[in-house]
Amino acid sequence: MRRRHHYRRRGAEQAELDMTTFLNLMVVLVPFLLITAVFSRITVVELSLPSAADGAAAAEPAVRVEVTVRESGLMLADNDAVIAKIPKVDGAYDLDELLEHVVALKRRYPDHDSASVLLEPDIEYDHLIQVMDVVRSAEIPVDGQPEFTRVALFTDISIGDAP
Fold it and tell me: Distance from first CA to last CA of the chain, Å, rounded?
């Protein structure tokens, strides 16, 4: 009796790999990952700190413009001298009055571009943005025309905690 050897036939087809399920998973997963990805922008803040070799302080004191946002209202100061205390009107900050004082301050110091916005801990983020917009630029009417022009005021703004 002869033994039968069971060898594969050389011409037999190989089994196909079904990629349909994997492709369905990718079609769903890739858009989900793209939508949920956090796109962040990294910014670098350049600081120039004084060194011990800088010598004596400048003869003329530097201009320091500060806007303090408190729960009761706004306070505008220049070199630790309070220029204006602007109380809230009907529960909202009076940004128009702040704008008038900031424009007048910019006319006094046309070459100065930096200002500080100081906040109490419970101030909403939206109020911070509104105050920064007022301090950064203003729309001023052109002489004798109904058009307005945007003017840069204090464009270099730093924020911090109110004392």
Answer: 105
Non-local (6+) Cβ contacts of 80 within 8 A are 64
Beta bridge partners of 116: 66, 158
Number of H helices, E strands in the chain: 3, 7
Alpha carbon distances (Å) from 110 to 102, 103, 107, 116, 155: 11, 10, 5, 17, 12
CA 17 to chain centroid: 51
* Residue 156 CA: distances (Å) to CA of 18, 42, 48, 65, 159: 60, 18, 14, 11, 10
- pTM exceeding 0.70: no
Question: For 13-37, how does the pLDDT look when each residue is reduced to its tens digit (9 = 90+)?
Answer: 777 778 899 899 999 999 888 887 7
Contacts of 118 (CB under 8 A, 6+ apart): 66, 67, 68, 69, 159, 160, 161, 162, 163
Helix or strand run (H / E) with residue 100: helix 95-108
pLDDT tens digits, 137-154: 888 877 777 788 888 888
What 3-state class would DSSP assign to 148? strand
